[in-house]
Structure formats: structure tokens, C-alpha cells
Amino acid sequence: xxxxxxxxxxxxxxxxxxxxxxxxxxxxxxxxxxxxxxxxxxxxxxxxxxxxxxxxxxxxxxxxxxxxxxxxxxxxxxxxxxxxxxxxxxxxxxxxxxxxxxxxxxxxxxxxxxxxxxxxxxxxxxxxxxxxxxxxxxxxxxxxxxxxxxxxxxxxxxxxxxxxxxxxxxxxxxxxxxxxxxxxxxxxxxxxxxxxxxxxxxxxxxxxxxxxxxxxxxxxxxxxxxxxxxxxxxxxxxxxxxxxxxxxxxxxxxxxxxxxxxxxxxxxxxxxxxxxxxxxxxxxxxxxxxxxxxxxxxxxxxxxxxxxxxxxxxxxxxxxxxxxxxxxxxxxxxxxxxxxxxxxxxxxxxxxxxxxxxxxx
Length: 361
Fold this sequence. Notes:
Helix content is 43%, strand content 16%. The longest helix has 23 residues, at 97-119. It has a seven-stranded parallel β-sheet with strand order 3-2-1-4-5-6-10, with helices on both faces. By secondary structure, the protein is of the alpha/beta class. The model is unreliable at 356-361 (pLDDT under 50). The protein has a domain at 5-194 and 228-256 and 299-320: NAD(P)-binding Rossmann-like Domain (Rossmann fold, 3-Layer(aba) Sandwich), CATH 3.40.50.720. Helix 2 packs parallel to helix 4 (97-119), helix 4 (97-119) runs parallel beside helix 6 and helix 9 packs across helix 11 (319-332). The chain is built from 13 helices and twelve strands.
């Protein structure tokens, strides 16, 4: 029986929409989906559940306390999962204000309304309630080539306006648990990839540009290392943390897949050569190196042993299986890509890459 009502903020974005779709698909309960619908929020991501009575969409900002209060009073959820965030480092360099407003001020306003709602619940419902905050490995800073992977106990050392704003939101969530007793959980994930990924990030950008015959931009010399996590694995991990995580704890979620950016681009080109071969040559011929972005962290790596040992979760996809699924999804959803890569997206490409001497749009 569908009895579990949760609120997902940012549920029209990349990770949020994958989580919402899976929650409804698995018949885990009703989702109240609150999203501001910025450029990265896309109702097309939710088309498959648009008529499902267990998915209720609310167009609002997490910083709108009146809207959040009304939502909580109307639907009385037993959990809030906060995916809502400005999440792209390059955009935070060009315009940090939006990141402070959404990730810091927005999270604070959301916490205040959730705290008031939680404090008014009966004691047994207070004990069952959870506030799960979805964050990033970037709050930990940058690793050297031989440094051990990030653990939950690592010191926060954010290096971009984006990661600093996420670090601030993490600290607020921690403070609301320790000060007010709000039953919180925090997850810090590595780089996600998969369906519905907005094509400003490396993997979908490379796929889109490759198929469009445009240059494939690689920052610096391509040596920056990231740990890659298939988005559906991330969603399953969050479900485990929500169900079994210890209140007040942080859980790092990673894919155990460290790759240089250059390796990722090579892999994408090789898969596209197989799946959608060009008339002549390889997609690798379109690779181009551009000026590195300011303060580009050298390496991220997640030690996901805590969540495996305590909650029994580990990723199902290797990078090789997940990346092939991702490429095939984009090849099969060219209409979705065409619609999201128009207008504001083209303006961003011009702004971000023109300064690095490349015209990609």
C-alpha cells in the first residue's frame, strides 16, 4: 500500500528527477516534487509520471517560506529530501550570487520551515521524520595524486563558490541537528552521470558536441581526476540512507571509478565510434584543449566504505557499463537533447568557452 509521502526539492533536475521517477516506479509512496524550474529543471524529465497520482508537482522556490509552509501543512510528509541546488562550478565562477541565494539562504529558509513543522508533530512522528540533505564531494577540496580518498571525517576545504556554498549548507544542516534536534542525514556524492543530465557537464556536453560535429572541449591537459557514479546507483544509495541511515550522520556515496577527464572523453569517443560511426575518421578528431578554469581541483575520490559496511550499499554499475548505457540513452533521446540545448544554454556556451579561446556554439 502506498502510504509514504515524501517531499523532494529540485525534483525536476538531473539527479532529483531520476530519484523521483525511481521512487514512483518502485511504488514506494507519494512524492511532492518542489522545483523552481530554473534552466536545469525540466518537466520533460518527469513526462512518464506526469499523470501518476502519486507524483504531485509544486512550482516553487525552497527559499519561499510561505510556499514551503503551505506544502508541509497540506501534505504532512514524513521526510524531506533536499536535492535543490545550483550545482555547476563554471556557472558559480561567472555568477556566484545565485549559488549563495539558493544553496545557503534557500537551505536556511527551508530548514526553518521544516523545523517548525517537525516541532509541531506528535512525538512518534517526530522520531520517524527525516531531513536528508544531498551534497557533493567538492566540499572536501582537492586531493593530490597519492592522497587517500575522501572520508566522511575529512576537513572541509571548498575551492569554488559552488563548493563553498554547498559546504555552508552542509554546516547549516549539521547545526540544525545538533542545536534543535532535527533528525538530519547528509550524503556527499561524487560526479554523477546518466539520463537527463543537462549538457553543460562534461559527459553530456561531449556526447552532444560529438554528434553535432563540434569541438570536444577539454580543460587544461585533461589530467583532472574525478570519481564517477551512475545516477541510478546514487538514487538507490539515497533510498538506503533514508531507510537505514543513523540520524545526524554523513554518508559518502561514490562509484569507485576514478578517471581522468581525458580518459572519459576517449571512452565516450570510442563508444560513439561503435554506436554511431562517422563517415570518416573518429570522434577523437574533434577533441580540443581549452584554457583551464580558475581554481580547477586536481582530483576528487570518494571512499564509500562506510555506507557499504553500515548500510550494505555498493554501486551496481561499473564505469564501463554505466557510460555505455548513458551514451545509448542520449542517442535514443535526441529530441530531449535538442530542446534543452537551445536558448539560454547556447548563451552559456558562448560565455563560458569564448573566454577560453574556443567558439563551441
